[in-house]
Amino acid sequence: MNATTPESRKPRVAVVFGGRSSEHAISCVTAGSVLKAIDRDVYDVVPIGIATDGRWVLESGDPDRLRIEGVGRLPSVDGERAPVALAQQAASTDLVVTEPSQPPRTLGEVDVVFPLLHGPWGEDGTIQGMFEMAGVRYVGAGVLASAVSMDKAYMKVVLTAAGLPVLPSVTITARDWARDAGACRAQADELGYPLFVKPARGGSSIGISKVHDATELDAGLEEAHRHDPKALVEVSAEGAREVECGVLQALDGTPETSQPAELRVGSDHEFYDFAAKYLPGEHTEIDIPAELPPGVAEELRALAARAFEAVSCEGLARVDFFVMPDSSLVVNEINTMPGFTPTSMYPQMWAASGVPYPELVDRLIRLALARDTGLR
Predict the structure, then answer these.
(1) Full set of structural domains in the chain with CATH
(2) Rounded mean pLDDT, 188-202
(3) 372: annotated binding-site residue?
(4) Is 344 a catalytic residue?
């Protein structure tokens, strides 16, 4: 498959969303926004949904069907729609639809995939590996960066090795907990309370608990292990401000950084949880640019670029920081496929930095089309 397409047709973009993770609904919301923003005069767009059971289907592509309307009205992929698959041909990769009592029909060659999957089985290098094997260009980070950034425990190892500041933490697996809960409690006690307990490979604040003292640790680990057998127990950044920075790769590979943004959650939320992030009517304020002491914004942007390169990221990432009471900076995490609706932090930061949402979507597609497949 070539980086350019024949002049007789537009580049074909397969927008892939949904997936098997607990962030299925958020992926659908993201996809609705991207489907609405892609310029159909420039690109031929094919919406591909992955149902919660792993089935790939040809979705309707109706952005309105993919909106979030409350806890009881979360969007999802319709797994009963026509199955679709990537079929490797001699010189291309085609999308093939198979329906009962119908011969297989091809939707044509795929030039680039825009994977809008959050969490395991999508943001963690698994689907990126499949695209690499098939020789398909795709938007965003490769296998290694996706896997390292998804696993918060290993992300800390890589960032620490690169000389970047992170919060102290310990990893407690479900097997560790079942084998010796007392030793696990002792590890947590050494960190000191309060703590945050979170799934090591989760996102969207799903499964996260703030543990104020030792009496709450067991429940916090039980909730985290419900979503991931690997839990991260981390020191709480008390009194810190949550500030984020967007990274967008230039065509020459240089990581460019956005204006930083600060999240301020209403008093009815102790931290930036799922409801504060996504549900309508929740009181969360955003300051773009974040009001930071002299020199801190520049340092934060430089650290964001360093974190991006430390994990060998490509395309885009959102790097989240804690600005401590003494104005020192700590890297919280890297998101290789951040929330991507127009009201999400990443697009808002780039809009404030002079890159509006449709241009941001277009730039990511063009960057992926220009990128070689295979080792690079």
Answers:
(1) 12-138 (3.40.50.20), 148-165+239-369 (3.30.470.20), 169-235 (3.30.1490.20)
(2) 94
(3) no
(4) yes
